[in-house]
Amino acid sequence: MYRNSNIELIKKLSSADKIEHAEWIRLLTALNSEEREFLRQSAADVATENFGRGVYVRGLIEISSYCRNNCHYCGLRCSNASAERYRLTKEQVLECCEYGAQLGFNTFVLQGGEDPKQNDAWIADVTAAIREKFPDKAITLSVGERSNEAYNAFRRAGADRYLLRHETRNDAHYAMLHPESMSAANRRNCLEVLKQLGFQTGTGMMIGSPGQSVEHLTEDLMFIDELKPEMIGIGPFIPAKNTPFNDHPAGSVDTTLILISLLRLRHPKALIPATTALATLSDDGRKRAILAGANVVMPNLSPSDIRSKYSIYDNKAAYGCESAGGLDKLNVELSTIGYHIDFGRGDYK
Ligand code: 5AD
Ligand code: SF4
């Protein structure tokens, strides 16, 4: 009698080679509240089996708010004349790492827009300097679409990981969210190259982005199943002022949590962050993400005077538990749900 039930389908997520299109649609649209709770609990169990009750922390350094791209959803898009722009110097990035190391971080994430001044050579040089100073720390880059040669140079300079969300697997949807100069195919090609170069590679998408349908989310889930990324970052879309989508409603926190659980069950060992976007939309978003299967938090290590300028969407959380200086507060928050910070490098194993 249970053969066709949704509970059976949820159980199948951990064991089946492939989840069919119609099954994903059902998982995304047909679960009642009991089944959703079963999904969440199953995902939380898989996360604790693999990571215990530890949550990895990554020190996030936002290296530049300049960007040559013009993604329609992002507050840093180049045509947003009211965006505040800054770029960190190499010395400032190294100072952030120094501060992070003192706090106990073992992973640094350098994230920025595609800033023409922070060109491939600059990124490689900064990566090499961090690698030299901190031989044992993991270095993650998140600096957009670059050439194969650039990715290769970053790898040789000592970067271990790279984050590049695919944003949406559907080409028409991608075209709706991006200017003509950008293509979904190029984004996917970058991801392939990163994997081939041996980067632990992260991808992901926003939930509730303008024009996104259940069909699109299904395509995203099937794409992630094929790519098998080591890291998966998903967060709700949040409108950003002075962008074409500034009036579009934010994505749903509940739907984001369901996606986290589905992804956890399909990718038991993946590093899945409780994203800042979730924490921005909901006071208990971070805790609920961890209880839905997430196992990473990325507190902000950027100098506090520039933090408000890295404004990809409105009211972005960057202080308190989202701040590297707030690790004690984060640990207290995690302890209320029986979890704690894990300061390990948290490599994909
Ligand atoms: N809301 C939520 N996430 C956003 N991103 C960019 N703009 C927004 C927004 N308005 C996400 C994109 C990008 C990552 C750096 O931030 O998915 O890959
Ligand atoms: Fe630039 Fe990234 Fe924003 Fe696109 S999402 S405009 S690439 S910072």
Describe the structure.
- The chain is an alpha/beta fold and 349 residues long.
- The protein has one domain (34-342): Alpha-Beta Barrel (TIM Barrel), CATH 3.20.20.70.
- 43% of the residues lie in helices and 12% in strands.
- It contains 14 helices and nine strands.
- The strands form two sheets. A six-stranded parallel sheet has the order 2-3-4-5-6-7. A three-stranded parallel sheet has the order 8-1-9, with helices on one face.
- Helix 9 links the parallel strand 6 and strand 7.
- Helix 4 (90-103) runs parallel beside helix 5.
- The longest helix has 19 residues, at 33-51.
- The radius of gyration is 19 Å and the shape is globular.
- The structure holds 5'-deoxyadenosine and iron/sulfur cluster.
- Residues 67, 69, 71, 74, 76-77, 113-114, 144, 312 line the site of iron/sulfur cluster.
- The site of 5'-deoxyadenosine (5AD) has 12 residues, from loops.
User: From the 3D coordinates, which CATH architecture would you assign?
Assistant: Alpha-Beta Barrel
The CATH class is Alpha Beta
First and last CA, distance: 38 Å
- Main sheet attributes: strand count, strand direction, barrel closure: 6 strands, parallel
Count, helices: 14
Q: Helix-strand pattern, N to C?
A: HHHEEHEHEHEHHEHEHHHEHHE
Mean pLDDT, as a whole number? 96
User: Ions, cofactors, ligands: which are bound?
Assistant: 5'-deoxyadenosine, iron/sulfur cluster
Structural class: alpha/beta
In CATH, the homologous superfamily goes by the name Aldolase class I
Main-sheet strand order equals: 2-3-4-5-6-7
CATH topology: TIM Barrel
